[in-house]
């Protein structure tokens, strides 16, 4: 019996080609939603790769030889033109990873280094470098010749693109509660506590925000929820290195650093916050009128969560409930809370009524010994921490089974979105 014909689908976010009867639940390469896939016409692609060569003059050899790698357009095809030791070659201008512009990369030996996440492809054969994450991959190559001092390139693929099958990163696919692979709606709710307090963890000290966070998690357990505590001070993770500043599409989920550096422990936060928890309680001290530096280090690395909305129409945080605990020797609580609420709101999180609790001794009473005693002994503060968790649990239960933001989020007026009115410069 003849096997059923498999269809092919192309991810419009990163160019990944998927074969199956329908688009995948999410792109195995970049995590984009199934709505971002288009049918992929392989017959048309192989026609494009047919041997009939039409040469196009792309410029003077002397001038083009000045740059080891440069991007050129040949018809509708973007190509990385390489010149090494006076010899020209041409490979696709689109990286196999998530479509980075290889023509804007640099040459390292015979390899073109992608400017986004440093995948390396042979500038002549298009093959991924041995030992690199792209080993086994190939980007298309194109015929090049020099005649009468002019460089001529053919837009017909001389060799095709090859994507080596890879196991997607475990965080690529997020199964929500009630979905296949996710917890059942009736399973206990899950509460994550994130401590952003910095300290010498081998010589711990008293932290007022941690004290109230522990109170909150204890209440969650008393209510039958599962809990998980993440202390940022115990994790080794790199600061955000600005992939978004290269291009919004270079900031990917899971985070570029998480995918490239197995030793980076921000994965612990992503796993608890994005995949595991239904409720997240973030606790921060106030430092010079701001949240803690570890809090900012964490949220910069969370840009990849928000950016999925922008580049892939993918909502990773649809029904996540966030509550905040803010304590400090000095004031500025409302400013800190406002900034934190804005950030988690931008991620798509939900908030309970009265979404934060806070405490400070104030400007003229920054006596930390008394502050510690106050937080330790105050029944009011402990009840407030428990009450915050109660409200988060109520909000979470009310949202179970409710579809929030499952569809397309209109992007007009949002970050990094090109409006449909052309600017006049
Ligand atoms: S897009 Fe080229 S390495 Fe990521």
Helix-strand string: EEEHEHEEEEEEEEEHEHHHEEHHEHEHH
> Which ions and ligands are bound to the chains?
FE2/S2 (inorganic) cluster
The CATH architecture of the largest domain: 3-Layer(aba) Sandwich
Helix proportion range = 25-40%
Give the averaged pLDDT, no decimals: 90
Largest sheet: 6 strands, antiparallel
Quick one: CATH superfamily of the largest domain?
A: Flavodoxin domain
Count helical runs.
Answer: 11
Structure, described:
The chain is of the alpha+beta class and 425 residues long. It has 11 helices and 18 strands. It folds into 3 domains: 8-40, Rubrerythrin, domain 2 (Single Sheet), CATH 2.20.28.10; 51-159, Rieske [2Fe-2S] iron-sulphur domain (Rieske Iron-sulfur Protein), CATH 2.102.10; 190-399, Flavodoxin domain (Rossmann fold, 3-Layer(aba) Sandwich), CATH 3.40.50. Helix content is 26%, strand content 23%. Strand 8 and strand 9 form a beta hairpin. The protein starts with 7 loop residues before the first strand and ends in a 26-residue tail after the last helix. It binds FE2/S2 (inorganic) cluster. FE2/S2 (inorganic) cluster is lined by residues 95, 97-100, 114, 116-119.
């Amino acid at each position: 019996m003849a096997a059923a014909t498999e269809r092919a689908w192309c991810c419009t976010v990163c160019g990944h080609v998927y074969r199956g009867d329908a688009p995948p639940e999410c792109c195995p390469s970049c995590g984009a939603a199934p709505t971002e896939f288009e049918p992929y016409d392989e017959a048309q692609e192989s026609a494009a790769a047919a041997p009939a060569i039409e040469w196009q003059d792309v410029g003077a050899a002397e001038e083009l030889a000045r740059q080891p790698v440069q991007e050129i357009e040949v018809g509708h095809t973007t190509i990385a033109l390489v010149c090494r030791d006076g010899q020209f070659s041409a490979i696709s201008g689109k990286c196999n990873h998530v479509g980075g512009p290889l023509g804007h990369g640099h040459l390292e030996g015979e390899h073109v280094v992608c400017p986004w996440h440093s995948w390396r492809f042979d500038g002549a054969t298009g093959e991924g470098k041995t030992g690199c994450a792209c080993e086994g991959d190939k980007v298309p190559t194109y015929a090049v010749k020099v005649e009468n001092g002019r460089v001529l390139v053919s837009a017909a693929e001389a060799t095709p693109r090859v994507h080596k099958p890879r196991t997607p990163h475990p965080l690529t696919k997020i199964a929500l509660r009630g979905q296949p692979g996710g917890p059942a709606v009736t399973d206990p709710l899950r509460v994550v506590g994130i401590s952003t307090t910095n300290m010498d963890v081998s010589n711990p000290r008293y932290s007022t925000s941690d004290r109230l966070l522990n109170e909150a998690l204890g209440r969650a357990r008393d209510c039958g929820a599962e809990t998980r505590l993440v202390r940022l001070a115990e994790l080794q993770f790199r600061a955000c290195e600005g992939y978004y500043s290269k291009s919004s599409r270079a900031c990917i989920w899971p985070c570029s650093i998480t995918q490239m550096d197995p030793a980076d422990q921000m994965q612990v936060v992503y796993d608890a916050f994005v995949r595991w928890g239904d409720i997240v309680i973030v606790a921060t001290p106030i430092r010079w009128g701001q949240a803690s530096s570890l809090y900012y280090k964490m949220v910069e690395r969370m840009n990849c969560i928000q950016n999925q909305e922008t580049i892939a129409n993918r909502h990773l945080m649809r029904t996540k409930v966030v509550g905040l605990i803010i304590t400090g020797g000095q004031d500025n609580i409302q400013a800190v809370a406002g900034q934190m609420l804005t950030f988690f709101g931008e991620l798509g999180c939900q908030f309970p009524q009265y979404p934060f609790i806070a405490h400070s001794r104030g400007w003229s009473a920054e006596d930390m010994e008394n502050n510690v005693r106050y937080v330790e002994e105050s029944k009011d503060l402990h009840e407030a921490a428990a009450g915050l968790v109660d409200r988060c649990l109520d909000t979470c239960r009310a949202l179970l089974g409710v579809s929030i933001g499952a569809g397309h989020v209109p992007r007009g007026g949002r970050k990094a979105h090109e409006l449909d009115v052309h600017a006049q410069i």
